[in-house]
Write a sequence for this structure.
């Protein structure tokens, strides 16, 4: 956020790839597997697949998706992406943002909520006409709900195709 001075430096640890990694850790644990036995290529491929499943889940109104990821010919991970699965991913402690003591041992959901509150307190007293949610993570319904609670529903605007916004020149 820039309004005459630098107010916030967005952490990369609240983005969609972090949700993908949290989903990967959950799927591994649910299947009794460890990432230590996997190649970097297998981990990346699994995270990419999980990202696609996550985007489909949110795009289809949180429809339930039963999926299988094949890590090799004889190693697979089965999982069901539904409301319970995503709630578990977003609300379990992720141990992210270790250098920010206020964020240690918080879930992604709580970190994002705290981030929005912190941003709001930094711009307190300054006019805020709109909050534009863009980027792939804005597909996560919790993002919109938290922003609506803090800023008011009437100020929240959603990008039409948020996953393509960086490619279209957002940065």
């Amino acid at each position: 956020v820039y309004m005459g001075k630098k107010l916030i430096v967005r952490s990369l640890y609240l983005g969609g790839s972090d949700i993908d990694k949290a989903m990967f850790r959950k799927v591994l644990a649910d299947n009794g597997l460890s990432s230590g036995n996997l190649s970097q290529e297998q981990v990346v491929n699994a995270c990419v697949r999980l990202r696609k499943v996550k985007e489909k889940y949110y795009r289809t109104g949180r429809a339930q998706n039963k999926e299988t990821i094949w890590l090799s010919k004889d190693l697979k991970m089965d999982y069901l992406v539904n409301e319970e699965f995503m709630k578990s991913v977003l609300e379990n402690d992720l141990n992210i943002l270790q250098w920010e003591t206020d964020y240690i041992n918080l879930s992604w959901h709580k970190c994002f909520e705290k981030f929005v509150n912190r941003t709001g307190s930094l711009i307190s007293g300054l006019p805020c006409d709109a909050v534009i949610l863009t980027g792939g993570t804005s597909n996560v319904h919790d993002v919109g709900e938290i922003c609506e609670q803090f800023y008011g529903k009437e100020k929240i605007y959603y990008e039409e195709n948020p996953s393509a916004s960086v490619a279209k020149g957002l940065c």
